[in-house]
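anyone seen this seq b4? input:
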Amino acid sequence: MVLAKGAGLEELARAFFARQGLIAIRSVSIQFEDEEVTDVDVWLYGRQGGGVRTRALVDVKDKKSPKAFERIMWARGMQLALNCDRAVVATTDTNAKVTRFAQQQKVALLTAAYLRHWSGGDDVLKERLSLEELTSSIQSYAGHKQDGDWLKQIAAAKSAVVSLTPYPAFNKAIASFRFFAERAATRPQHREQAMRGAFLSAALACMSLDAALERLAFENPQSRYNLLLSGVTYGDAGDNRVQNSIDMVLSVISHGVKNGRALARQTSDALEEMFAGVRAEIIAEFFAKEQNAAHLFPVARELEGRAHARSREALIGLSVEAKSIIGVFADFVGAKRTALLSSEFVVPATAHPYSPREPKEMSAAETAKDSAAEPEDKVGATASPLNSGTQHREPLDHPGDDEPSKGGTKTTSSPTLL
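predicted toks r here
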């Protein structure tokens, strides 16, 4: 697939920062109360240590008249609005005045010429699907929009990572993960696309949870457990605001309504039963341990890459740590692990609609031979939908899994941005 001019530079900028050890995600919508405000071309997230995280945005313009001054001001404003650490503008403008203005506004300037020189003519998408190709892959399932709108699920999860605080963002991303995990189990003909959506959603969930743990880096394990349990259960900013609001309402009922104490007690019991169904203890128990939490960032990078892997072998070749976290997430949402970790597919991995290679042109003789040949029977195997179920499994305290793989990934801290 030939990318549009702007999309090509966005992919180049994404690859540039990804190779610095950051998580780089293209086309992230910024929303406020379900209303779209604007979008960020490339969103960056990095981890330098236990209590240090880096967030940055990249504005990309590949035009003859890029309006660089305007883009610098926009990027600076977005940096302040989103409370980012850095703002970067990638532009075709090489005017020295633009460089000085960017320095004055504390915005990093990245020229298109520099990015193309950095790539050295190498194809950064040789083993990776672009955003447009991933979208095309999902759209190859004709019913994706009627079946819960697959693309909207991914867009909402990406938006939550930037627009919401960590715990609500995690809950939004994990809801998207549940959606795709169920589709992977019940849509065998489109399991590959569902797995891509599930892995990308899981990567976003790992990012959100890692961001939440930034504030808990120096807490003891029990405090980390309690704060994670509360944050995941109530989906607040980790400040117990939702629990305090519930307690206030129950207090008003207890003291201001006839037979209020009995009514408040019944309401409290019903709420406790409802929140117990969240099963947040699965997440809290596993990630309260530092040795497990330390894998969140590297696994987020891996899963984001797996979701965009061009080959099916690269898609399913998860590390032990990634399989362990996928297993914990699957237990949390009540999904089948095998639907996400199995290497068996109903549809053979032959030619994809998003394959970068153009079909070879046949000669006249080959065309005549092909026309005379009997048409081959298509593979018509249909698997019975798997039951998504709610089978509970205890989370692992080690990177083991019911489908282990050889080797692992090394946990490395990402370098300082720019």
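The first helix runs from residue 5 to 18. Residues 69 and 98 are 6 Å apart (CA to CA). kinda curious what u guys think
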